């Protein structure tokens, strides 16, 4: 019996789910489990190693999971891919099935962010890990002035865009500096749900940017509003940053982000695995 994590990912999706999944992966490892993280993209599986995931596999689609799993395995999935019919099948196939956003809140972030940063970076813009439409360079930034804030690059940004985007920002920060940047940025403007909550956990002040290249169902604005995180919309960088500056000049009181308690689920999984290990010798003898 194995425990699998499935995280939707890709160059037109980003790494939101992979970052959350890595937290669950490490929590399971700490409990003595040996989970396998499956991503929808091979590049994301490789990236997950930087997040402490030592067993990662790219499988393209969640529908490919039965090619890896056996009936009675357990699954935690973070994806909107499954239809209701597929969810029913997954529930029958797995001993335990958990969904991020239903059984586990999407506010799950790594404990390292709760240690807080030093706010040594005043302002940073992080669009997200993906920009498949190249909207930042082709739609948002053109014909705008140089902005007085840093740009944190995304993992799936097109090669060479660092130099092309440099004229529009005070500083370009490479993606390898992601964690330190989120931890230490006092005011973070971001189109990433996950980065928003990492910033909150760090004691910083995020502002959520509504990306026009994303569907409303993917934005989770109700969850953002629940924490009173201010929201910005705009067609070009001058407009967006002007609104951002107005907000941070009188930043509102936001709801404190508490650590997500997954102990009941993690304990339940580890107990099932231990029980299965205990009965395996007798099953082998009978076979």
Brief overview, please?
The protein has 287 residues and is of the alpha/beta class.
Can you walk me through this structure?
By secondary structure, the chain is α/β, with parallel strands linked by helices. The strands form 2 sheets. Strands 8-7-6-9-10-11 form a 6-stranded parallel sheet. The protein has a 5-stranded parallel sheet with strand order 3-2-1-4-5. Helix content is 35%, strand content 17%. The chain has 2 domains: 133 residues, Rossmann fold; 139 residues, Glycogen Phosphorylase B (Rossmann fold, 3-Layer(aba) Sandwich). Strand 2, helix 2 and strand 3 form a beta-alpha-beta unit. It has 10 helices and 11 strands. The longest helix is centred in the C-terminal third of the chain and has 24 residues.
What would you say the CATH architecture of the largest domain is? 3-Layer(aba) Sandwich
The structural class is: alpha/beta
Helix count equals 10
Q: According to CATH, what is the topology of the largest domain? A: Rossmann fold
Rg: 20 Å
- Number of separate strands: 11
Number of domains: 2
Mean pLDDT across all residues, rounded?
94
Q: How large is the share of residues in beta strands?
A: 15-25%
What ranges have pLDDT less than 50 throughout 5 or more consecutive residues? none
Order of helices and strands: EHEHEEHEEHEHEHEHEHEHH
Shape: elongated
């Amino acid at each position: 019996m194995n425990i699998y994590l499935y995280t939707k990912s890709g160059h037109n999706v980003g790494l939101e789910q992979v970052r959350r999944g890595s937290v669950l992966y490490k929590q399971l490892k700490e409990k003595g489990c040996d989970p396998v993280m499956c991503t929808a993209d091979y590049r994301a599986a490789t990236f997950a190693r930087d997040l402490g995931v030592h067993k990662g596999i790219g499988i393209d689609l969640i529908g490919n999971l039965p090619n890896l799993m056996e009936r009675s395995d357990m699954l935690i999935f973070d994806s909107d891919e499954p239809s209701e019919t597929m969810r029913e099948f997954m529930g029958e196939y797995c001993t335990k099935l958990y969904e991020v956003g239903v059984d586990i809140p999407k506010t799950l972030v790594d404990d390292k962010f709760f240690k807080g940063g030093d706010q040594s970076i005043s302002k940073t813009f992080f669009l997200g890990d993906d920009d498949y439409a190249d909207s930042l360079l082709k739609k948002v930034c053109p014909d705008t002035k140089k902005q007085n804030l840093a740009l944190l690059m995304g993992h799936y940004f097109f090669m060479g865009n660092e130099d092309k985007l440099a004229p529009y920002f005070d500083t370009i920060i490479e993606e390898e500096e992601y964690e330190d940047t989120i931890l230490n940025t006092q005011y973070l403007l971001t189109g990433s749900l996950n980065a928003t909550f990492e910033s909150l956990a760090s004691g910083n002040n995020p502002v959520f940017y509504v990306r026009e290249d994303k569907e409303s169902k993917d934005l989770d604005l109700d969850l953002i509003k629940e924490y009173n995180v201010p929201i910005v919309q705009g067609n070009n960088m001058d407009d967006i940053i002007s609104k951002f500056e107005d907000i941070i000049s009188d930043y509102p009181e936001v709801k404190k982000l508490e650590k997500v308690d997954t102990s009941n689920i993690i304990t339940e999984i580890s107990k099932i695995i231990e029980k299965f290990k205990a009965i395996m010798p007798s099953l082998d003898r009978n076979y």
